[in-house]
Design brief:
This protein is of the alpha/beta class. It has one domain: TIM Barrel (Alpha-Beta Barrel). Strand 9, helix 9 and strand 10 form a beta-alpha-beta unit. The protein is globular and about 55 Å long. Bound molecules: beta-D-mannopyranose. The site of beta-D-mannopyranose has 7 residues, from loops.
Length: 370
């Protein structure tokens, strides 16, 4: 039978675990979420997650941000359940407008987060913040002075504090019907072991990268007292253990060890070889992450993954699952199904030719949905 996560399942256990687990220093809603995740991992479960799932999907989107009941989901259309983890993206919130870089209204993002939490799911946020120095987007790597300009003493320090304030104000509005802050996972400054974002490997020094984390953390947790967040560190899966840890901000700042790793379809070597390459890399990465998790007292996650357009009829059951099932991975999150780019999807949708394989994947006892 399918594992359905219900908040009630965790209530008693959560309290016991919160007191004895690695993140016992966390307060409030964050410690409850931490305990839930620990309990799931202890139970051998892996939650399935999907980016932007309630906001839009393949060839559809929520039109009425204020009133839509948020019942549609590509994943639910295919397997009858919502993903257990909902990823949401905050890029361009910092500009003060009402829509994200993917043109999703922030009202909708807020409502989706709260709704998903109320359904018993887990929410995680990414943030492709714009390049404050050049005015470009997160992918603008034309200057290696962006992080330097944000840190204390830098020309954009004050302006960046404003951006953090906007972010904190948004986080503070994520509340349940009783007015309590809902817990979530925040995953900033991701894939920094690559050099495609302005905070990436070649764009700042190790010390600058760590200082960026500390500044972000100190403001949100310290100054603003947001005690409902777990912090996830998500390098890209292109490094060995030394590379993974090189810019680790520190155990006091991080709650979850993540990794972003995709199957890249290399047409020259073929689909099978591309999948095999991914499986090998994922296995060796999760092996060292499992050891790091034990050493540092953190849970681990595959914070972003997928194969764009899913051309393989067995990617879920024969590529992803055989690897993740061997590790204490709390969740795997596949990236978004864009409503306006027909080829840009990482989850299945109703009518997609390879949807059966996903259904089989969700039938495995280990895989949890809500
Ligand atoms: C990327 C792509 C972009 C999107 C960005 C932030 O991986 O999906 O189209 O704008 O994520 O969601």
């Amino acid at each position: 039978m399918k594992t359905i996560l219900k908040p009630i399942l965790f209530s008693g256990l959560a309290i016991v675990l919160a007191a004895c687990c690695g993140n016992g220093d966390k307060a409030g809603a964050a410690s409850e979420l931490s305990a839930r995740l620990e309990a799931l991992v202890a139970d051998g479960k892996i939650m399935y997650g999907h980016q932007d799932d309630l906001c839009y999907g393949h060839a559809w989107k929520v039109e009425d941000a204020e009133n839509d009941p948020l019942e549609r989901s590509d994943i639910k259309d295919v397997c009858g359940h919502y993903p257990a983890v909902l990823g949401l993206e905050l890029g361009e919130l910092e500009l003060g407008g009402d829509k994200s870089l993917d043109a999703v209204p922030f009202t909708l993002i807020r409502r989706a987060a709260v709704k998903h939490h109320e359904r018993g799911g887990v929410v995680t946020f990414s943030w492709h913040a714009r390049n404050i120095l050049t005015g470009g987007d997160a992918w603008d790597i034309s200057s290696d002075q962006v992080v330097a300009s944000i840190l204390e003493g830098g020309e954009n320090h004050a302006k960046f504090q404003e951006w953090l304030k906007i972010l904190a104000d948004f986080f503070d509005t994520l509340r349940d019907a009783d007015g309590n802050r809902i817990p979530f996972i925040f995953r900033p400054w991701h894939e920094h072991t690559g050099s495609w974002f302005w905070w990436g490997q070649r764009l700042c020094t190790t010390e600058q990268y760590k200082a960026l984390w500390r500044m972000t953390y100190d403001y949100l947790e310290g100054e603003r007292g947001l005690d409902n967040m777990l912090w996830c560190y998500s390098p890209s899966m292109n490094v060995d253990v030394a590379g993974y840890m090189e810019r680790y901000p520190g155990d006091d700042l991080i709650d979850i060890l993540g990794v972003d790793g995709y199957t890249y379809f290399n047409r020259e070597s073929g689909l099978e070889a591309s999948c095999a390459k991914f499986s090998g890399e994922l296995r060796s990465t999760l092996e060292y992450m499992t050891s790091l998790g034990k050493e540092h007292g953190k849970i681990i996650t595959l914070s972003e993954t997928g194969l764009e357009s899913i051309p393989s009829p067995v990617w879920w059951t024969e590529v992803l699952y055989p690897v993740i099932k061997d590790f204490p991975v709390s969740y795997v999150l596949t990236w978004r199904n864009a409503h306006d780019k027909p080829e840009h999807f990482y989850g299945p949708w109703k009518g997609f030719e390879n949807e059966e394989d996903f259904k089989k994947f969700t039938d495995f006892k280990q895989i949890a949905l809500i």
